[in-house]
Design brief:
Keywords: Metal-binding, NAD, Oxidoreductase, Zinc. By secondary structure, the chain is α/β, with parallel strands linked by helices. It is built from eleven helices and 18 strands. Helix 4 packs across helix 5.
Length: 393
């Protein structure tokens, strides 16, 4: 492409400081270096982890930054040493890398990668090395991706090449939330046919967890949330029973125990709330119950009574649903294209990059219509040009 080897100036939503609106800026995106890929971002979702960094984590060392980590796009150019990608390839950036060489990548028991930004910089959620500048200042690349920009530069170990026919404004959701919730059920929890499950929190991650439980063959799936307006959406993904903890004068773990003869076989916490994490564990049946922590948080400690584990329960955590990223995301794209998993049903709004603060506010305020995923198109498009939907550029 004509831009290969040159600095690209483009639009990006910059978070200059914690707890403040994002600012639309013109940034400079440097050419890719050794082993790197520069990507034209076509679509991106808004994930709660973006909000966590902006409003909850508040570590000022993680700013200024460009947020966004659920994206999909097209390769614009590649740096020296890159042989598996070429300009024009459709790709999904990955916040969790897969180098293929470290001890974690070589171990089938985990999807961690020692070369990921999270191995050293999870507290600021960015590697200090960046290809972004704005007004002469370096701008961090959030979770190594920064998809709230028209262009981004990413190490090849954190990019997945996907099918040429994949609709980017759908499969971008596989960059985080949907893969995370779905995989937490089918991989980390290991939901079994005929089992009884409970999913706590019905945002996009929780709904994906419900879908995972359903696809794994669970016979009964409890959807737990304090907002009952989310229950209809959960039913679409396979939930069979619905509980609002505020509707009872006893702990919801006790309610579940009464309804299931002692507790559920599998529970998944998809909120990022330490109190809910404990409740999810206590909702499991003793002897073999498995509870999985899926929601992201690092600002509070959690606790439980030892007897919960001594009695045979298992407490586990799940990052990116246990999927080895580069290997698994292309397969998940194919699963969507063949109808095995849903993606369209997660999208609640389609907005332009300039509307990113509106998208964040929809998620932040808990508008039930916005509990799925807000889809943002960084690239200018004609209204309805690509999908027939009202896509504003």
């Amino acid at each position: 492409m004509a831009t290969a080897g040159k600095v690209i100036k483009c639009r990006a939503a910059v978070a200059w400081e914690p707890n403040a609106p994002l600012m639309m800026e013109e940034i400079e995106v440097a050419p890719p270096q050794e082993g790197e890929i520069r990507i034209k971002v076509v679509a991106t979702g808004v994930c709660h982890t973006d909000l966590y960094h902006l409003f909850e984590g508040k570590d000022k060392r993680g700013f200024p930054t460009v947020l966004g980590h659920e994206g999909a796009g097209v390769v614009e150019s590649v740096g020296p040493g890159v042989t598996d990608f070429k300009p024009g390839d459709k790709v999904i950036p990955l916040f969790l890398s897969q180098c293929g060489e470290c001890k974690f990548c070589k171990c089938p028991k985990t999807n961690l990668c020692d070369c990921s930004w999270s191995s050293k910089y999870y507290d600021i959620m960015s590697d200090p090395t960046t290809r972004f500048t704005c007004h002469g200042r370096p701008i961090l690349q959030f979770m190594g991706t920064s998809t709230f920009s028209e262009y981004t530069v990413i190490n090849q170990i954190a990019v997945a090449k996907i099918h040429d026919d994949a609709p980017l404004d759908r499969v971008c959701l596989l960059g985080c939330g949907i893969s995370t919730g779905y995989g937490a059920a089918v991989n980390t929890a290991g939901v079994t046919p005929g089992s009884v499950c409970a999913v706590f929190g019905l945002g996009a991650v929780g709904l994906a967890a419900v879908m995972g439980c359903k696809n794994a063959g669970a016979s009964r799936i409890f959807a737990v949330d304090i907002n009952e307006q989310k229950f209809e959406k959960a039913k679409v993904f396979g939930a069979t029973d619905f509980l609002n903890p505020k509707a009872y004068n006893k702990p919801i773990s006790e309610v579940l125990a009464e309804l299931t003869n002692g507790g559920v076989d599998f529970s998944l916490e998809c909120v990022g709330n330490t109190e809910v994490m404990r409740t999810a564990l206590e909702s499991c049946v003793k002897g073999w119950g498995v509870s999985v922590l899926v929601g992201w948080t690092d600002v509070k400690d959690f606790s439980a009574k030892p007897i919960q584990l001594i009695s045979g329960k298992t407490w586990k955590g799940s990052l990116f649903g246990g999927f080895k990223s580069k290997d698994s995301v292309p397969n998940l794209v194919c699963d969507y294209m063949t109808g095995k998993i849903k993606l369209d049903e997660f999208i609640t709004h389609k907005m332009s990059l300039e509307q990113v603060n509106d998208a964040i506010n929809l998620m932040k305020t808990g508008d039930w219509h916005a509990q799925g995923t807000r889809l943002i198109r960084p690239q200018r498009v004609m209204i309805g040009r690509q999908t027939g939907s009202n896509l504003i550029g």
